[in-house]
Design a protein that fits this description.
Blueprint: H1 5-12, E1 16-19, H2 22-38, E2 49-51, H3 52-66, E3 72-73, H4 76-88, H5 99-115, H6 120-126, H7 129-147, E4 150-151, E5 165-168, H8 175-184, E6 186-188, E7 197-203, H9 206-223, E8 229-232, H10 236-251, E9 267-269, E10 273-274, H11 279-290, E11 294-296, H12 297-304, H13 313-329, E12 333-335, H14 336-350, H15 356-368, E13 375-376, H16 377-390, H17 401-418, H18 421-424, E14 426-427, H19 429-441, E15 444-445, E16 454-457, E17 467-472, H20 492-497, H21 505-522, E18 523-531, E19 550-552, H22 591-599, H23 601-608, H24 624-642, H25 645-650, H26 653-674, H27 679-701, E20 706-711, E21 716-720, E22 723-727, E23 731-735, E24 740-746, H28 763-770, E25 775-782, E26 789-794, H29 819-839, H30 857-860, H31 862-866
Parallel strand pairs: 1-2, 1-5, 3-4, 5-6, 7-18, 7-19, 8-16, 8-17, 9-16, 17-18, 24-25
Antiparallel strand pairs: 10-15, 11-12, 13-14, 20-23, 21-22, 23-24, 25-26
Helix pairs in contact: 4-5, 4-7, 9-10, 13-14, 14-15, 15-16, 16-17, 22-23, 22-29, 24-26, 26-27, 28-29
Length: 873
């Protein structure tokens, strides 16, 4: 790919060559640079290739600097914000869903009027609601520009400066600009070539389409290093991640490796990405967001563990340790200063290593909070930059080229904000941050990597230069020509009359036909492709495509992952036997170990011996575990005061209310000493807990007489299978005849899950084995706002008489004649479970309900068993 001779001559003569957009300007600049290298030169003058928009703004700013009478041209940031302010303050704003969208539409409409020389008189002739609103906004916009001594985006200058200009002949120019260039600059024509080979390809999906095209380009580039291709993906803005993955897999596979080393990518995506998505900019924005207002745990967790705050693996480990502590004891949300204070408190309490990430954030936050008074943006910006250097940009020496370029673009944006002091005036810290964030959100950024051999564009345009191959995707009957897309706010009839691009179906058709003829002259090979819809509906080729046979292409490779079919076959070995349990070095988790082992031996092994567990996540208010603790603590106090059924029956309404209030207060106080969710949640919990306790006492009143014999006894050590298990029984009652029942509180839904050879929960059988004397029943006390009742196993029908229908009746105790026999059966069962755990049984063999809430499917890989394959262990 070489430069057209006229373009080479213009650059050699020192002319500034203008292109209609940044994409073409970048391609021309890169081609000019390559031409100099091809001549064997080591030093040459920088080619003067500019996109027209940036060149024009530079001319306007220069005119202002040279003549004080010339108004300062309004900057992009000032223009966007001024349109927003105008529309927000207008009478029409109350009918708008999003002011920012309206501001962008107004800005575009005004630009089109200038580019196509549409007079206001014609616009007002239509007298539509939209045109009237736009006219009112426009008048206010220009009035405010005058009051601020700013020049709004205007028509072209009457004549250029002494600079020698040239312009490339391209359909991308707007009419007014083209006419001006024709008068004041040298026209540079493209070089055409005879139409070459053209093919039309059909794919079953868009994913296959991109994968196949990327693979074909890789093969051509490997065969010919001088190969150059221009690829058009018209909906690239929507499919950018998909396109990047497909081209990365073929042309930059090193990006999928753990090592960052590797050659530069052989392709580039045009158009750029939102500046806020680049790592260095995203880190700065996340820090500013965190420094203002409340911050929930998930966001602070990501912040404290962010790679850009960690100098070493030790730093990352310290941040992870304090994050685990915050998961268990931290609130759902707090200010950044509050989170950092908790980090230091918890670190000292647990003697954890210093958390350097927290120290960096503290210093950065202190910089922002040094002054709370309102300031001009030029005063806020140095504070932001200093805070960035202390926090998110602390280890910037590790940045990639992309991160450096994005940070530099952010600095340019900040500089533009600083120059707009006269427009924005003084701003509070929060208002300044909102302006900054909004400005960043409006900017797209293209990393400067030069134009590589494969250039992927999102615009159907004339590439001007000649390529080895041109590939255009999305050429189905519904997508090509592109549907008409008239601009908002301007009358459609008027847009068609003045030839506004995209406003008319006929114009879209003519443009598509012109582009197809142009593409045929720009490359020796043209490939047009289209794909079936994502729902599988077949697509038809556009009628504009060359009248040649459509090829049904299929990607031999898997989309996005080249060479997956050639992956080595690994030997599989399933090992379900762990080493025997070592009681000297290892500890059981009490009932939880037996419960997990019974449900699935692998889960028992993973949770008790590998310490695999689901991490807690702070939630608003009290979490389910804490609410269970509240009920346990409150009922312990209540029964510690009442002691028996007779006292409960004598309890008067006023005394009961006072008792429940005190029980709730004490329970909440005890739980809040471990983790305080916030005063608001504490106040909300008190009446809820009091109501729940009152509801439960009504259930207890319906029982036959009893006396509470034991409450929340200290943990006991039970021995099963030769191993110790710590067990804590909630409550034991004695009935009038001296028999006993054991009760365990449940705040969720309770079911008789203790039955069967592999019970889902052997908790009640274990309690029975610890307290077998005169035991006639064990039960879950379901203390639940929806349904409160006992779920029991009993040899009598009148122990919990209010729920006789839900009780175990005679003959229902797994076929045993009495409770003593049932306890003996439970002993054999629990011993077997414990012995399997002690022996190291770790088979992936879950009970039917074991996988429903298991956090370990990725570790045991149960799905491979379901699919008929042994798990790779």
């Amino acid at each position: 790919m070489r430069l057209p001779s006229e373009l080479s001559a213009a650059l050699a003569a020192g002319r500034t060559v203008l292109a209609p957009n940044t994409e073409l300007a970048a391609a021309l600049f890169d081609a000019a640079e390559r031409e100099q290298r091809a001549l064997g030169l080591r030093l040459w003058a920088t080619p003067k290739v500019r996109d027209f928009g940036s060149w024009l703004r530079e001319q306007q700013e220069r005119a202002h600097l040279e003549d004080a009478k010339v108004l300062k041209p309004i900057s992009d940031i000032e223009e966007r914000e001024l349109w927003r302010q105008v529309i927000e303050s207008s009478l029409f704003s109350q009918n708008l869903l999003e002011v920012g969208v309206a501001a962008r539409a107004a800005r575009r409409a005004r630009r089109l009027m200038l580019d196509y020389a549409i007079p206001w008189a014609k616009v007002l002739e239509e007298a539509t609601d939209e045109s009237q609103a736009f006219y009112a906004w426009h008048r206010e916009f220009e009035a405010r520009c005058r009051s601020l001594n700013l020049s709004p985006p205007a028509a072209l200058p009457p004549q250029p400066s002494g600079e020698k200009l040239a312009w490339i002949d391209n359909p991308g120019w707007r009419p007014v600009v083209r006419q001006w260039l024709a008068r004041h600059a040298l026209r540079v024509a493209p070089e055409t070539q005879a139409a070459g080979d053209a093919r039309v390809l059909h794919f079953a999906s868009g994913e296959l389409e991109l994968a196949h095209l990327a693979g074909s380009l890789r093969e051509r580039l490997e065969a010919d290093p001088a190969f150059r291709a221009w690829v058009c993906v018209p909906d690239l803005a929507r499919r950018r991640p998909e396109a990047a993955a497909a081209f990365d897999a073929e042309l930059a596979p090193g990006r999928f490796s753990l090592s960052s080393a590797g050659p530069a990518a052989a392709y580039a995506l045009a158009g750029g990405s939102p500046l806020a998505e680049y790592a260095s900019v995203r880190a700065a924005l996340e820090f500013l967001d965190a420094a203002n207002g409340a911050l929930n745990f998930a966001k602070f967790s990501a912040l404290i563990r962010a790679p850009w705050l960690q100098e070493s693996q030790q730093d990352a480990g310290a941040a992870a340790l304090i994050e685990l502590e915050l998961r268990e004891r931290g609130p759902y949300e707090a200010s950044l200063a509050g989170w950092l204070k908790l980090c230091e408190e918890f670190r000292r309490a647990k003697s954890l290593p210093p958390v350097n990430a927290a120290a960096h954030l503290s210093r950065a936050l202190a910089t922002l909070e040094a002054s709370a008074s309102a300031k001009r943006l030029s005063e806020w910006i140095p504070l932001w930059l200093e805070a960035f250097k202390l926090g998110p940009w602390l280890w910037r020496q590790r940045w990639s080229s992309t991160e450096f370029q994005a940070a530099e673009r952010l600095r340019d944006l900040l500089a533009a904000l600083a120059r707009a002091d006269g427009f924005f005036g003084t701003q509070s810290r929060l208002a300044a941050n909102r302006l900054f964030k909004r400005a960043v959100g409006e900017v797209s950024f293209q990393v400067q990597t030069g134009v590589p051999p494969i250039w992927v564009s999102g615009q159907p345009l004339d590439p001007f230069l000649n390529y080895s191959m041109i590939l255009v995707c999305g050429m189905s009957a519904t997508q090509w020509p592109a549907p008409a897309q008239p601009a908002a706010l301007l009358p459609v009839r008027l847009q068609r009359a003045y030839g506004v691009a995209g406003a008319d179906s006929a114009a879209q058709l003519a443009s598509a036909e012109l582009l197809q003829r142009t593409w045929a002259q720009r490359a020796r090979e043209c490939r047009f492709s289209y794909a079936d819809a994502s729902d599988g509906q077949a697509s038809q080729a556009s009628a504009l495509l060359p009248a040649i046979a459509v090829e049904a292409a299929s990607a031999a490779r898997r989309p996005l992952w080249r060479g997956a079919a050639a992956a080595p076959i690994l030997e599989q070995y399933a090992d379900h036997q762990a080493p025997p349990f070592d009681p000297v070095r290892e500890r059981t988790h009490g009932i939880a170990t037996l419960k997990a082992q019974s449900r699935c031996a692998f889960r028992g092994f993973a949770e008790s011996r590998l310490e695999a567990a689901r991490l807690e996540l702070p939630v608003p208010g009290f979490n389910p575990r804490e609410r269970g603790e509240l009920v346990h603590a409150a009922l312990e106090y209540v029964w510690g005061e009442i002691r028996d059924h007779a006292s409960l029956m004598r309890l008067q309404e006023g005394a009961e209310k006072a008792l429940l209030q005190e029980a709730s207060r004490r329970a909440i106080e005890a739980v809040c000493r471990k983790r305080h969710p916030g005063e608001r949640w504490r106040r909300r919990e008190e009446p809820r807990l009091e109501h729940l306790l009152g509801k439960w006492l009504k259930v207890e009143r319906e029982r036959s007489p009893f006396r509470v014999e034991m409450l929340e006894e200290a943990a006991q050590v039970a021995s099963f299978g030769g191993l110790p298990f710590r067990v804590r029984i909630d409550r034991q009652d004695e009935l009038d005849d001296g028999s006993r029942v054991v009760i365990d509180y449940k705040t969720g839904t309770a079911n008789p899950d203790w039955r069967g050879e592999r019970p889902d929960n052997p908790q009640l059988p274990v309690y029975a084995l610890l307290r077998p004397e005169r035991l006639v029943a064990v039960a879950y006390a379901q203390v639940n706002a929806a349904v409160s009742h006992f779920v029991a196993e009993s040899e009598r029908g009148n122990v919990f008489k209010a729920n006789r229908g839900a009780q175990a009746r005679k003959g229902a105790m797994e076929g045993e004649p009495n409770f003593a026999a049932l306890i003996e059966r439970w002993r054999v069962r629990i011993e077997a479970i414990a012995l399997n755990f002690a022996a190291g049984d770790a088979a992936v063999a879950p009970t039917p309900s074991a996988c429903q809430n298991c956090p370990l499917p990725g570790l045991c890989r149960i799905q491979s068993l379901i699919d008929g394959e042994p798990p790779d262990e």
